[in-house]
Design goal:
With 303 residues, this protein is α/β, with parallel strands linked by helices. It has 12 helices and 14 strands. It folds into 2 domains: 161 residues, 3-Layer(aba) Sandwich (Rossmann fold), CATH 3.40.50; 64 residues, 2-Layer Sandwich (Alpha-Beta Plaits). The strands form 3 sheets. The chain has a 6-stranded mixed sheet with strand order 6-7-8-3-9-10, with helices on both faces. Strands 2-1-4-5 form a 4-stranded antiparallel sheet, with helices on one face. The radius of gyration is 25 Å and the shape is elongated. Bound molecules: adenosine-5'-triphosphate. The site of adenosine-5'-triphosphate (ATP) has 12 residues, from strand 2 and helix 1.
């Protein structure tokens, strides 16, 4: 059974179409990343599926149960972190977590567990307002993790964390997922979610542009074979005669995006050598993930 089911979700604020027909499904144990630029509709989608916003149209189900204002039974199964982490500034880390544990009807021992998990032990007695941005984020994540919820919904969980913190949290989330926790998170960095998510849903202007299994990501990356020879004009002629479609790049390279060139660069090298025009440079260049992301979202916008 799907843990999260969002179907035809629409949320309009007057003329602003924050979400404009988004659908997604997250199965148990998946790490699903909602990826989009600023203003794409990630937070609105997340707030709607947590019952914080009433949708204009469409439906949201968690564990098969429709999310409504009175769906109380659901919230004990869900841990979440949405937008600016809010903690009581004058209370310590432990006090903030103890308060949250009480609200969730959890034993006090649960606090120690999340303090350890998030590496907050050295800061346990520190007031929330004295924490660095990264440690405020850790405290917010600790709150979400209290009581080992079956579903974690995390809006930009990497916010404010330094690179070591990002790696650590990624590892923690992977471990939780391997133990059966379902995770839905949002991000605007493809390179980051590519290392974490099992599935990536790209949202742009309130619409789901595409969903990609993380394992399939390499197939979406555009590649080009870049070649330089001493005589580029002769090389281009030889390549065209060989059935390739070389283009001259601004940097003086010849580049080919034909499948045959990209996947069999050795054949291109052999052709050039045998034609008396050996390459001095020949390499397959891969699009970086940020470029891929921008290309996918531009396609979604109809550009
Ligand atoms: P970010 O990464 O910047 O947080 P996001 O993908 O989470 O972006 P949302 O916060 O969901 O995007 O916003 C989607 C759109 O809806 C934006 O254009 C935003 O300005 C608009 N919006 C969000 N909340 C409201 C609101 N309460 N009233 C009016 N417009 C809103």
């Amino acid at each position: 059974m799907a843990v999260v089911q969002v179907a035809g979700l629409v949320k309009h604020y007057g003329a602003v179409k924050a979400v404009d027909g988004a659908s997604l499904t997250v199965a148990a144990g998946e790490i699903y990343a909602l990826l989009g630029l600023n203003g794409a509709g990630k937070t609105t989608t997340i707030r709607t599926l947590l019952g914080m916003i009433r949708p204009t149209a469409g439906s949201v189900r968690l564990f098969g149960t429709p999310v409504t204002a009175d769906a109380r039974s659901l919230w004990g199964r869900v841990g979440y972190l949405v937008e600016t982490p809010a903690a009581y500034p004058e209370l310590t880390v432990t006090e903030n977590l103890t308060l949250m544990a009480r609200l969730k009807h959890l034993p006090a021992a649960a606090v120690g567990n999340v303090v350890e998990q998030l590496g907050l032990r050295p800061y346990a007695a520190r007031r929330a307002r004295e924490l660095s941005l990264g440690n405020q984020q850790r405290l917010a994540l600790a709150k979400a993790l209290l009581g080992r919820p079956e579903l974690l919904v995390l809006d930009e969980p990497a916010n404010g964390l330094d690179p070591a913190g990002v790696t650590e949290i990624r590892q923690l989330l992977k471990t939780l997922a391997a133990q059966g926790t379902t995770i839905l998170l949002s991000s605007h960095i493809l390179a980051e979610v590519a290392k974490l998510a099992t599935r990536i849903g790209i949202i742009h202007a309130g619409r789901m542009v595409t969903e990609i299994a993380a394992a399939d990501l390499p197939h979406h990356v555009a590649r080009a074979l870049r070649v330089r020879c001493h005589d580029q004009d002769t090389a281009a002629r030889i390549l065209r005669q060989g059935g390739y479609q070389p283009l001259s790049n601004l940097d003086g390279m010849l580049s080919m995006t034909d499948e045959r060139a990209v996947w069999h660069p050795d054949e291109v090298a052999t052709l050039l050598v045998e034609s008396g025009c050996p390459p001095v440079h020949l390499a397959v260049a891969e699009e970086d993930l940020e470029t891929l992301f921008l290309r996918l979202t531009a396609r979604g916008a109809g550009a």
